[in-house]
Specification:
By secondary structure, the chain is mostly helical. The chain starts with about 35 loop residues before the first helix and ends with a helix. Helix 36 runs parallel beside helix 38 and helix 63 packs across helix 64. About 65% of the residues lie in helices and about 0% in strands. The chain is built from 67 helices and no strands.
């Protein structure tokens, strides 16, 4: 060993193949004898010390060879041996290196021993790490006790604590490295292989995933202490930086440990260059590698940002190397660089008094952050917004830049990414909450303050300018006087200098500096003031040198001219030169001695004026910045308002928090968001409702009051203020909010007491508006605690319905609404106590009747009708015998109308004459022919009373009376059941079951909802449940009979008044008052709600008024009325539904909006069948009114969630919208179909639509229809089956491919399929593309041939136009087209039957296509014959005028759709018999064949009539004519 060198191998197998002069392992021990060899090695350590390694290296090396096969005891023994030997080595080396000189032999021997021992120790550590990693992956972990999880362990590993052992080894290595090991080598530089051997061992330990645990901090610190020593003493810095980058690329868990380690290396060992080297290594990574290795790139990013957080001063010099990645492709690296910039700005560049270079760097970083707010990647934009938010929270954004950044952030609120919008809202909120301006940001107040301060500034500036001019004049005068004193001496001095001949040479004693011209002139003036004329002269000569031509010009002058020349220059400088430093001027003049006291006073006054102007300028600039800030934040309010209706819950919650902060800061526009937040109380998401409740509680229930009384008063004031700004739609949500607050105690008894006091005006300074608001709040409170109202009815009646109510009808209206809170909405059926009702002579009703009568003629009161509506509701809901009360009221009002005062506008009296014969008891006076005239306003109120009382009477019978009868039946049944307790047990149990079934399965709360009984109870049906059910049916039928025959029909008062209502509605030209017509039509609709017979008889009149009414309000009311009638009498209204759809094209946006709302409710509640008329609703998607378009979009989105409904009507929508008669713009058609087709998501539906749209090509006639169908095909997503159907149906559209638009659309379809389809379908796509191209070329040739044939036919017109030729051609075409259609229908029927989950119609076709084929063909044939001819359109409806008694009413529109060429081919699987009949109408030949059919039969077939024929005339003028009509 004396002459053999140990070379550290890169692989342990190299030691088995030794080279000459190098050590090699010659004896590898076998596994059985390894334990004995290790024992000998251990003994050798005690005997020979460090030299043991020379004799037993092979034994220790054998442990490495057999490491995987050896058991833990052998490995542990080997580890203990090497640890003991290495400890001895470390101690001996310390003593040896302290002695100093080492001979070459000893040095060589010591180096070999050190390298051999270190090699065995480090390799054994690596082997243990690999073995433990393998065991952990197999589920067998060593119980380290300090960082590794305990899992399924073997017994042999229980006592082995590897982490403690490896830490001890690292400590030994650290102590070894503290020795001057360089002395062992010559020259004194340690081998790089030796250093890498120790370093690689440390890196191997870092690869363990458990090293990132918190409890492993001591291990990480020891590792980096070793690495720090290697870097500081053994030049391992470059290798360490490369290795760190490599570890980051491979192991994501090392991000934080390596960042902490780098910080430790810098702080403890001063290794500052390592940061720069790591940054350089990362910056030199290719961008393509960064894009491919996303995990490594993410690790780089997190590492650099974490280092920047801890060592920004070291990362800042190296940031320039990373800025190249801002233009790179990797978004992760862009986020990394931007994050580093943000940390540097936050930690180093946000302090005051920055130097110019630091300020420039800060501005550069902030510019980058601004630019990347528009980054193409959404994650980068999110990261930048988060960085800005952190800078804003830490007050690190310069005030001059805040407006610019805020403007960019507001623009990000329009971003497509939800996360970007969310973080943009966060940042706007952070700007708002951390604004440096004011706690209240009212824009109007700030603008007014700014204007006032600007006027003050202008005034100060004007005064300052005047003062400056005055002082300038005074100063110049004083200087002139001083110059006159100095001029003789100065002239004599200059003359002496020029005469002595020293004009060109300056004395050596004068030291002059080359100053700027301004400074030189100022210095000359100061020297003159101090009487230092010689220095002033030489300064002037020095300043003269800055003008090259001046000296040559002076040299041509004589001496006197030169003296005058210098005197003029000095005079001008001394008198007229304005100095920037006023103090120096005053000092020079004070030394001259001319008015020093006055000069000092002037300095003080001028400085005070200047400071005032500067402070005022600062105030103006502050207000200007504040106004700009408020305007920018206010510009974000409309966008954030839209986010309140977002689909993302997080967006909604963030918007709520923003508006809460904005309202607290006093932003004027924030109240809009606060109002819209109320509607979110109906949200389905509980988190949204909780956020809304918390926001309103923070804004309106949180006060700074110190006493409970003051707190209650302030809360009521806040709620009253909110109540004044909410609209009708938000009122219900506010009521729900108040109800919840009352239940959870947020509104306590003290607040309720304050409400009563404000209502009764017991609190000083309470206005009528405040009293009204308190009353409304009490009504909201009553929803949660009804005893609040029930215990204070006398107070409510005496104030709300008393003298104040007589003067304020709105107060009466709100008081009635509060009284209605006493009504139980769903009373229990088996309650022993009847519903709360008061006697008819109660103060409530007497006060109400008095108010209704007294205010009937007060036509200026706009709240009379709303008040009377609520008052009548109170009567019917709370009074006993309400019909008697209202009948007396109606009689009295009728008498007032007949015998009242003369009207202001010419009224009419003949309409009352016909009432005498039919209802003689309506008038109290015997003379019934007294003429009476009244204003249209009074008559319209009377109309309202008639209609509302009729409707309330029906609801009273249908709900209240029915529930009371039902309750009495239940009590009777329970009493009878108690009496029959001794009956048979079996019957009793059966009766209980029937009774419980009746109570739980279906409990109807009205007679109209109770199903009609189809059988009478038999004699054996003595069970209580059956008897109760039959009794309910009988009572419901009884109430129905009353509603049908005894309210608006028969001999009742309302029936007698109905002709009056009909007369006014039938004669709009005679009764032209808009209010009267509106009231009469509403009354007619309400009376139609009562009786089906009355509805059927007057429905035609109602629809006629709808079609011909000129006022949008009337049409809106009638659309809503028809919607209500559709719920009550759906079968009667069904033939008239086309008129409802027709209002979607109304000229008024209000009518269209109301119609859309009504149809949406009817369709979504299955009250109207979804047919082809839904295309009218599709047109609303492109309506000019955005609100209507949004409603249409929402409707179709909801419809798409309703099974296959939207899919079933999709072909009809396409065919109707592509009809040439509709003349729909192509762009609008694309917009509609792009939205609707996007709602089809099922693959089966898309496959079926592909085939259906292809089949519709056959009968399409115009190129526009071909283009529309092709566009619809391009909107579908194609699967393998869809592509196959598109290919199979190529003959359907092959002859249309000659059109450029159609061909381009199909090419785009195939291009899209080829991008997304599987590789195996590429051949099918290419084949179809080739066929389409071939058909396109062939079609173009056919078009050319057709054009030539047409030209030739024109030349032979006499032959081609013979009747025989026409008949032959048409017959042939008809035969071919019929056979083609039948074949396609059979094929389509069979293909549709495969899609079992598409629709019920398709399932039926699949099950019965064999048996129904013949019958369906017969139905088609008969339907075609029946509906071959179009019915003659009805004449234009005209209402009666004053000159004609005849009326022509609107007929129910034919539900048969208008057929075009696109509609010719119908889908049998989803079409009814009527649809088949419609398809038959498409053939012109069929029309011609059937033209000889009887017109009457065709009319009956094509035009379905209503349930009963409408009355032909509704004009009633006299009792005789009415009797004649009645007899008919």
């Amino acid at each position: 060993m004396a002459d053999v060198e140990f070379v550290i191998p890169t692989n342990k197998d190299e030691l088995l193949q030794g080279e000459p002069g190098q050590y090699s392992v010659r004896n590898v021990c076998s596994l059985p004898e390894l334990s004995d060899k290790l024992s000998d090695c251990k003994n050798s350590i005690s005997e020979v010390g460090t030299d043991f390694i020379l004799d037993h290296f092979d034994s220790l090396f054998s442990v490495l060879v057999h490491f995987k096969q050896a058991d833990l005891s052998t490995l542990s023994k080997g580890w203990n041996v090497i640890m003991k030997g290495y400890g001895v080595l470390q101690s001996s080396l310390a003593l040896l290196l302290e002695e100093g000189d080492l001979n070459s032999e000893l040095r060589f021997r010591t180096v070999n021993i050190t390298k051999m021992a270190t090699y065995i120790l480090t390799q054994m550590m690596r082997a243990f790490e690999e073995k433990l990693t393998q065991k952990s992956s197999n589920g067998i972990l060593i119980d380290s006790g300090k960082g590794r999880k305990k899992s399924s362990k073997k017994v042999e590993y229980e006592d082995f604590n590897w982490e403690a052992k490896s830490h001890s080894a690292l400590v030994l290595l650290y102590h070894l490295l503290q020795l001057p090991l360089n002395k062992l080598w010559e020259p004194p530089i340690a081998e790089e292989e030796f250093i890498n051997l120790i370093a690689d061992c440390c890196y191997k330990v870092l690869e363990d995933p458990g090293i990132s645990a918190v409890k492993m901090k001591y291990m990480r610190e020891t590792i980096f202490q070793v690495l720090g020593t290697l870097i500081k003493r053994y030049n391992h810095g470059l290798s360490c930086s490369i290795k760190i980058v490599h570890l980051l690329k491979l192991y994501e868990h090392l991000v934080s440990p390596l960042a902490q380690g780098v910080v430790q290396l810098v702080q403890e060992f001063g290794c500052q260059t390592i940061v720069r080297e790591v940054v350089r290594e990362i910056s030199e990574t290719d961008s393509s590698d960064l894009m491919q290795n996303t995990s490594g790139t993410r690790a780089y990013s997190q590492f650099l940002v974490e280092v920047a957080e801890r060592l920004p001063e070291l990362i800042m010099p190296a940031i320039n190397a990373l800025t190249v990645h801002l233009e790179g492709e990797s978004p992760v690296m862009r986020m990394c660089v931007l994050g580093i910039m943000g940390e540097i700005v936050l930690r180093m560049l946000s302090v005051e008094n920055l130097d110019e270079s630091s300020r420039d760097m800060r501005d550069q970083f902030l510019d980058h952050l601004e630019d990347h707010l528009h980054d193409v990647n959404a994650f980068v934009r999110v990261k930048v917004l988060q960085i800005w938010q952190r800078l804003c929270q830490e007050k690190s954004i310069p005030l001059s830049r805040q407006g610019q950044v805020l403007k960019l952030v507001v623009g990000r609120l329009h971003d497509r990414s939800c996360n970007v919008k969310k973080n943009a809202m966060h940042l706007v909120t952070a700007f708002l909450e951390g604004n440096p301006f004011a706690a209240k940001l009212s824009l109007e107040e700030l603008q007014s303050q700014l204007e006032a301060e600007m006027k003050t500034l202008e005034k100060l500036q004007g005064e300052n300018v005047i003062e400056m001019e005055r002082r300038k004049r005074v100063t110049e005068h004083e200087r002139q006087q001083a110059w006159l004193e100095h001029e003789p001496e100065v002239a004599k001095l200059i003359e002496d200098i020029l005469q002595t001949g020293s004009t060109e040479d300056e004395p050596a004693t004068q030291v002059l500096t080359q100053n700027s011209l301004t400074e030189s002139l100022e210095e000359i003036r100061v020297k003159l003031g101090q009487k230092q004329y010689l220095e002033a002269y030489y300064l002037l000569r020095n300043a003269e040198k800055q003008f090259p031509g001046a000296q040559e010009l002076r040299c041509d002058m004589n001496m006197e001219s030169q003296v005058v020349y210098f005197l003029n220059l000095l005079h001008k400088i001394f008198v007229e030169c304005n100095s920037s430093g006023e103090s120096s001027l005053q000092n020079s003049q004070s030394e001259v001695g001319s008015g020093s006291a006055s000069q000092e006073i002037g300095v003080v006054s001028q400085s005070a004026v200047d400071s005032t102007v500067e402070s005022q300028q600062a105030v103006v600039q502050y207000l200007r910045d504040t106004v700009i800030f408020v305007e920018l934040v206010s510009s974000a309010l409309p966008v954030i308002c839209q986010l309140l209706h977002s689909r993302q819950v997080t967006d909604i919650i963030e918007a709520i928090e923003f508006f809460t902060s904005a309202y607290q800061f006093g932003l004027a526009g924030a109240i809009v968001g606060i109002q819209q937040m109320l509607v979110l109380m109906w949200s389905r998401d509980q988190a949204v409702r909780d956020a809304v409740a918390l926001s309103y509680k923070k804004l309106y229930l949180t006060t700074e009051s110190t006493t409970p009384r003051a707190h209650a008063v302030q809360v009521v004031k806040n709620l009253s203020g909110l109540l004044k700004i909410v609209n009708v739609g938000q009122h219900a949500a506010f009521e729900e909010l108040v109800k919840n607050w009352v239940k959870n105690g947020s509104i306590d008894k003290a607040c309720i007491q304050v409400m009563w006091e404000r209502f009764s005006l017991n609190i000083p300074d309470t206005s009528e508006e405040d009293s009204l608001a308190a009353l409304i709040l009490l009504g909201m409170v009553a929803r949660a605690e009804v005893q609040t109202v029930s215990s204070n009815i006398p107070v409510l009646v005496s104030i709300g319905l008393g003298e104040r109510g007589m003067r304020n009808y709105r107060l009466v209206k709100e008081a009635c609404q509060v009284l209605l809170k006493l009504v139980v909405q769903k009373p229990p059926v088996n309650s022993p106590v009847p519903s709360l009702r008061f006697p008819k002579d109660h103060d409530i009703f007497t006060s109400i009747i008095k108010i209704l009568k007294s205010g009937f003629w007060k036509v200026d009161e706009n709240y009379y009708i709303p008040m009377s509506s609520e008052a009548i509701g109170v009567i019917y809901q709370l009074a006993e015998q309400p019909d008697v009360i209202c009948q007396e009221l109606l009689k009295d009002l009728l008498n007032q109308v007949k015998h009242g005062r003369p009207p202001e506008i010419l009224g009419n009296n003949e309409i009352f004459d016909g009432l005498q014969g039919e209802h003689k008891d309506t008038c109290s006076e015997p003379n019934t022919h007294v003429s009476a005239e009244c204003s249209f306003e009074v008559l319209s109120r009377f109309m309202f009373m008639i209609g509302h009382i009729a409707l309330r009477q029906m609801l009273y019978l249908d709900v209240a009376v029915f529930c009371e009868l039902k309750r009495r039946n239940m009590l009777r049944e329970e009493r009878d059941e108690a009496l029959n307790t001794k009956s048979k047990k079996k019957k009793k149990q059966q009766s209980s079951r029937n009774n419980s079934l009746q109570n739980t399965s279906y409990v109807s709360m009205s007679a109209s909802e109770t199903p009609r009984s189809r059988q009478e109870p038999s004699d054996g049906d003595d069970e209580m449940g059956v008897v109760g059910a039959v009794a309910d049916d009988q009572e419901a039928e009884y109430i129905r009979n009353i509603c049908e025959n005894d309210i608006v029909t028969g001999e009742s008062l309302l029936a007698a008044l109905s002709p009056l209502v009909v007369t006014i509605c039938s004669n709009p030209n005679k009764y032209k008052n808009m209010k009267l017509q509106t009231a009469a039509t509403l009354t007619l609709a309400k009376m139609m709600m009562v009786s089906s017979n009355f509805c059927e008889n007057h429905l035609q009149l109602l629809v006629t008024v709808l079609e011909k009414a000129t006022e949008p309000v009337t049409r809106c009311n009638l659309i809503v009325a028809l919607g209500d009638l559709s719920y009550r009498f759906p079968n009667i209204i069904e033939p008239w539904t086309p008129h409802i759809y027709g209002r979607l094209q109304d000229s008024s946006s209000e009518v269209r909006q109301g119609t859309m709302l009504v149809l949406t409710n009817l369709i979504m509640n299955d009250m109207v069948k979804v047919k082809g008329q839904i295309s009218e609703m599709a047109l609303c998607i492109v309506d000019t009114e955005k609100k209507i378009a949004d409603m249409a979009c929402m409707f179709f989105m909801e419809l798409s969630q309703k099974g296959n409904t939207l899919y079933n009507v999709m072909p009809d929508i396409i065919s109707r919208l592509s009809t040439p008669d509709l003349k729909l713009e192509e762009e609008k058609f694309k917009t509609i179909m792009k939205f609707i087709m996007g709602l089809i998501q099922k693959d089966r539906q898309m496959e079926s639509l592909v085939e259906k749209l292809c089949l519709r090509f056959r009968m399409s006639q115009s190129e526009r229809q071909w283009s529309d169908l092709a566009f619809c095909l391009s909107l579908l997503q194609y699967s393998e089956r869809s592509l196959r159907r598109l290919s199979e149906n190529l003959p359907c559209y092959a002859d249309k491919l000659h059109s450029p638009k159609v061909y381009e659309t199909f090419c785009s379809i195939l291009a899209g399929i080829s991008k997304t389809t599987k590789p195996e379908l590429k051949a099918a796509v290419d084949e179809l593309e080739a066929k389409i191209k071939e058909c396109s070329n062939k079609g173009a040739d056919d078009v050319l041939v057709s054009q030539k044939a047409t030209a030739a036919a024109g030349r032979r017109r006499t032959t081609a136009n013979t009747p025989a030729g026409n008949r032959i051609g048409s017959t042939t075409h008809r035969q071919v087209s019929r056979s083609t259609v039948r074949r396609d229908r059979r094929r389509h029927l069979s293909s549709d039957s495969e899609d079992s989950d598409i629709s019920d119609g398709e399932n039926a076709n699949k099950e019965n296509r064999g048996s129904k084929g013949q019958s369906q063909q017969q139905i088609r044939t008969s339907s075609r014959l029946r509906s071959a001819r179009k019915p003659v359109p009805p004449p234009h409806p005209v209402l009666d005028s004053d000159d004609s008694d005849e009326e022509i009413f609107v007929k129910p529109k034919t539900p048969i759709k208008k057929v075009t060429g696109v509609d010719h081919l119908a889908d049998d699987a989803e079409s009814s018999d009527e649809d088949v009949a419609e398809n038959a109408l498409a053939s012109p030949d069929r029309k011609r064949i059937c033209s000889s059919r009887d017109n009457k039969k065709i009319s009956v077939t094509c035009t379905p009539k209503p349930r009963s024929t409408p009355r032909p005339k509704h004009t009633i003028t006299t009792s005789a004519s009415r009797s004649k009509t009645k007899n008919k």
